Amino acid sequence: MLLLNVAAQAQETADSVTTDSVTADSVTTQKSKSKLMARLNQVQQLLDAKARAKVDSNYIEVPKKPWRVVLRYKESVYDVDYSNSVGSPAAGDGMDWELRFEPPLSASLGVWAGYRGLGLSVAKSLGRKKGTSLSFSCTGAKYGANLRLRAFDIDEATLTGTIYEGGQVLHGTTDAHFRAPVSIASIYLNGYYVFNGRRYSQAAAYNQSVIQRRSAGSLLLGATWYMAALDYSDDMNTGMILLSRNIGRINVQQGNIGVGYGYNWVPFRGFVVNVMAMPALCFYNRMKVYNYDSNYEIAESEGQIDDYGQWNPDTHTWANGKTHKPVPTDDDDTSWYATVDSWEVGSDTSFSMLRFNVDLRIGIAYNWSNYFVGLQSQFNNFNFKKDQCKVNLYDAWARLSFGVRL
After folding, report:
1. 3-state class of 232 per DSSP?
2. Contacts of 111 (CB under 8 A, 6+ apart)
3. Do residues 125 and 132 touch, judged by C-beta distance below 8 A?
4. 380 and 395 in contact (C-beta within 8 Å)?
5. Band of pLDDT at residue 308, cut at 50, 70 and 90
6. Which residues, at least 6 apart from 379, have a Cβ–Cβ distance to it below 8 Å?
7. CA–CA dist 401, 70 (Å, integer)
8. How far is residue 195's CA from residue 51's CA, in Å, rounded to a whole number?
9. Would you list the DSSP string of 194-209?
10. What is the mean pLDDT of residues 265-282?
11. What angle is formed at CA 323 by the lines to CA 318 and CA 326, rounded to 5 degrees?
12. Mean pLDDT of 174-195
């Protein structure tokens, strides 16, 4: 019995020590968390104080709650005009043509989340025309920057052609359908500097990081970098490659710098209307085209097409020794697509002269309590040229948003 009592007392002592140890660890953990939260609160207060110190509180209000979550509905228009020539239209023997890739209004639904002037947005296209866009924004009292990525596929276009032959000119427009989708991707980087940042905020109407309290305007200095890629190099699009003077892919890059003006009109508390216009000079305009060869060509028929036999992809020749086979002139004959083979053979790069572009924006926002709604729109135009090859891109969108401050 004595041994049992001693053992029981020892166990009670051990349990007590263990419990005290767990309790001590819990207290230590709670103190560490409290210290971390206290430090984070200090950092947040410091950032908030600096943000308020940079603006005139009579014109710009920095909300107490720094976090924002926004639901966005957006409709976009992306228009790509691509033109080229076949033969010698200037000499009256050839064809000018233009393809217009104009997807229907593309609707997308996305979520934007951010802290003060920092934010990230992800959106997915709705409906049949699928695509994805990603954007990152960073704004302050004196500056702002936005990065937007977009990619989608399309298999429809409008084809307009003018044929010059024997002194006659024939003009027509038709719908073009691609056997393989054409891939279009773009990267848009924009930055601006606000000269009157203490009283005017571009962000008040576009990401609601601050609230404009009184009407004000400012001169703006801005720069944009734009990149776009047009890819129709799939074997099933060989007809398009041949019409494009054997071009299968196009990459364009453009840098712009401009001076504009923005104005915030505040008719009553919480409501702001922004209008901004910025003409820009294009100082860098580069186009790189990727050339392709194929086992077909636009040429006069050489005897019976069936005499060419099998195609050898290793030697790039037909069975009769020829390297190219004429494209059938019969529109109903589609059997030749089954034997199409095309491959990249090189690239050419060219630079265009100085050009003028334009950046137009309109933004409306209303704030109440910890909520806000906004309506914004933007229009951009970019154009490129290499010999007879021309590319014009029009990028415009309108967006409705609803957000809450946290």
Report:
1. coil
2. 69, 70, 71, 72, 121, 122, 123
3. yes
4. yes
5. confident
6. 358, 359, 360, 361, 394, 395, 396
7. 6
8. 16
9. ETTTTT--SGGGTT-S
10. 95
11. 90
12. 86
What's the pLDDT score for residue 300? 61
Count other C-beta atoms under 10 Å from residue 354's C-beta: 9
Question: Is this structure's pTM higher than 0.85?
Answer: no
Write down how long the chain is: 406
Buried b (16+ CB within 10 A) or exposed e, 205-226: bbbbbbbbbeebbbebebbbeb
34-88 confidence digits (pLDDT tens): 776 666 565 555 555 555 668 899 999 999 899 999 999 988 777 777 777 776 6
Residue type, 345: V
DSSP-assigned letter for residue 337: G
Phi/psi of residue 243, nearest 5 degrees: -65, -25
Amino acid (1-letter code) at residue 219: L
Q: What is the mean pLDDT of residues 13-17?
A: 53
Using an 8 Å Cβ cutoff, are 236 and 83 in contact?
no
Of 25-29, 274-278, 383-387, the range with the lowest mean pLDDT is 25-29
Closest Cα to residue 199, out of 61, 56, 63?
A: 56
Q: Residue type for 106, please? A: S
**Element of type H or E holding 73:** strand 67-88
